Amino acid sequence: MASHKESKCPEGSTSKHVINGAGAPQAQWGRAWKVDWFSLLSVIFLLLFAPFIVYYLIMSCDQYNCSLTTPAIDFFTGKTHLSNIWNRMPSLTWTAVSLYISWVLFQVVLYMLPDFVHKLIPRYRGGLQEGTVTPAGVILNYEVNGLQAWLITHALWFANAYHFHWFSPTIIFDNWIPLLLCANILGYTVSIFVFVKAYWFPTNAKDCKFTGNFFYDFMMGIEFNPRLGKWFDFKLFFNGRPGIVAWTLINLSYAAKQKELYGQITNSMILVNVLQGLYVLDFFWNEAWYLKTIDICHDHFGWYLGWGDCVWLPYTYTLQGLYLVYHPVQLSTGNAVGILLLGLVSYYIFRMTNHQKDLFRRTDGNCKIWGTKPKYVECSYMSADGTKYYSKLLISGFWGVARHFNYTGDLLGSLAYCLSCGFEHILPYFYIIHMTILLVHRCIRDEHRCSSKYGKDWKQYCDVVSYRLFPGVF
Asked: What residue ranges are annotated as transmembrane (predicted)?
């Protein structure tokens, strides 16, 4: 499903050279033009079962005290029926519908505002930013204002909690399942809309990919950058807002509920809020960098991102906080400090790995990484309009340790979130299981794309940097 802040190849800055003649070869990078049977089966499986997986996770907490096995055992032994589970589920309410519609519209308004935060905070890169070259040779501009939206949203949240009292801080938790229904409606509505839009009024027809397979095209998307007007970019909005802005608010609502139920907030809940809050804040601080990642530079926008960002991200990435509402865990001081250190070290690896690539790209290699001038592999690739581009693949610093060492930091951070919940139930560990599958798959998918894009230059790079994630292992 959709992920947050995923990096692509360790590329440096790009220059171009126009190839004369209409016979210039077509660009082949980007998602697949043809569908193999394994990919098609995977797509059908996710389309059929991903919504039920999310529902099962949330339902197990709401009805079975966060046990993943008990509802399945009760069903197969005849102790309960699907109708019983469904009938016990909270129904859709006007409170949830109005709350969700207001939330999404508020984020749309914030998304369309010009950014002023970059003028106030030194070293923050916001405002008008340029994206990377698409396979068709298009370069889009973006108004980067995610940090501004996050700050405004959270300022209003705390103003309400401590002064205005318009609504309870537990409002998200109290309406969590009805909000799940709303999120599914939006996810499917957006996915269907962009699918139809790709046929009838695409933003850029040359960046559309049709495989001829309905299921694959619907899930993986046809349009590369579907937009309404000049600035409303579906991919950037749904990848960054409203799901990721909500992530920290959801955790705060969980903490408020824990305080309401037990009279205190446990150190494990604080750890989850702090570590995941740091990750979210990092995302918005580096949103301009995010324009260079797989989600923006490679993925087309379909159900995978549309539904995934609306449902999968907010409902599965926050399972640790949800679990701690039902099972409050007070860690020993030693364990809490150890988990905090693991989370901070993993964040350092993640951030510094991406910083090294960003520094290398922005300076065209005229910088120092780990005290020395960086080494790189020179490479070239072609866009569909016959333009040849040159790029550099970094092989110094963390990028010389493994080809996706930022993913390594991501996985270690995911483990820290899960360890905060103790070992009584497996449910909070769904996140690390999911992230491992996701990032390993992304490694393979990204390297297939890079191989198609760079050809023999990519093989040369892999010969120098032999491992993907963990040196000596994988």
From this structure: 37-58, 92-113, 176-196, 329-350
